[in-house]
């Protein structure tokens, strides 16, 4: 398997793996991308190859958002930046997987740049945040602005994790925060990413998306509740919904095999009964 990673243009982290002769797959990560520290490294690259091993026959690009985001950056602006990446590296038409904040960006990428997108999977993202999700992201933005990184990370686990992790992870993070430095590479990017998430509302552009679209989410997502998820599915003509029962916002990492299996079959053109949970 080919493996490459680094910074595109010196500002945007990327990881590339799989079969470089295969069909391109572009993965847009969630808010956690803004929390990264240091340069892309082999450890993260190997973890990603494991997380997305179902796509080893594809040319997989996991591309983060640029560091030092311009003030006022919206999810639509982020989509335009990704379109430039697709164009510059001849990845079109790419199948796209957008997770959480990446799923918000993917909606605009598919709507505004239809020639660049083959099919799209919008994972753990709705037309906009729910009321509880808005309160949580505002809380994270406020703490990030004050440099309370341990509080931000502990609270994100409370909001997105499932099962015992929801209970165990937050106090462990708080304990580690007494000696560890969780400050991200560019703190302002966390604040700007939270603001972009809070301001996102895609209801008026969904009908312009022509790409076959899979909307996949957990039915227990606290940030994007089921009605917000269904709004995406209902707003796109060629959309399919896959709801995972009893799963929260961290679907992509808590059920990677099940999710990636569904996404892979969808991208391969299977739409029949029994494909989805």
TrEMBL record:
InterPro entries, A to Z: AB_hydrolase, AB_hydrolase_1, AB_hydrolase_fold
Keywords: Hydrolase
Superkingdom to which the source organism belongs: Archaea
SUPFAM superfamilies named in the record: alpha/beta-Hydrolases
Gene Ontology molecular function, alphabetical: hydrolase activity
Domain named AB hydrolase-1: residues: 74-251
Tagged with keyword Hydrolase: yes
Keyword Hydrolase in record: yes
Annotated protein name in UniProt: Alpha/beta hydrolase
Organism per entry: Haloferax profundi
């Amino acid at each position: 398997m080919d493996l490459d990673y680094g910074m595109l243009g010196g500002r945007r982290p990327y990881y590339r793996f799989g079969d470089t002769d295969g069909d391109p797959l572009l993965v847009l990560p969630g808010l956690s991308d803004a929390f990264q520290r240091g340069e892309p490294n082999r450890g993260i690259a190997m973890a990603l190859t494991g997380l997305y091993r179902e796509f080893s026959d594809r040319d997989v690009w996991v591309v983060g958002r640029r560091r030092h985001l311009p003030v006022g950056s919206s999810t639509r602006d982020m989509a335009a930046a990704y379109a430039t990446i697709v164009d510059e590296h001849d990845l079109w038409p790419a199948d796209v997987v957008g997770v959480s904040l990446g799923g918000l960006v993917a909606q605009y990428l598919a709507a505004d740049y239809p020639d660049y997108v083959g099919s799209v999977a919008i994972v753990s993202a709705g037309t906009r945040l729910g009321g509880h999700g808005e309160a949580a992201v505002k809380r994270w933005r406020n703490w990030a602005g004050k440099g309370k990184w341990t509080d931000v990370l502990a609270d994100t686990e409370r909001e997105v994790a499932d099962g015992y992790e929801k209970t165990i992870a937050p106090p462990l993070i708080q304990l580690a925060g007494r000696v560890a430095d969780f400050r991200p590479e560019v703190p302002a990017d966390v604040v700007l990413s939270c603001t972009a998430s809070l301001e996102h509302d895609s209801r008026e552009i969904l009908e312009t998306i022509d790409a076959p679209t899979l909307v996949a989410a957990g039915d227990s997502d606290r940030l994007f509740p089921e009605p917000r998820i269904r709004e995406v599915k209902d707003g796109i003509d060629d959309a399919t919904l896959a709801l995972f029962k009893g799963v929260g916002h961290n679907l992509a990492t808590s059920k990677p095999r099940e999710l990636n299996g569904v996404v892979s079959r969808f991208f391969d053109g299977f739409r029949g009964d029994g494909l989805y949970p």
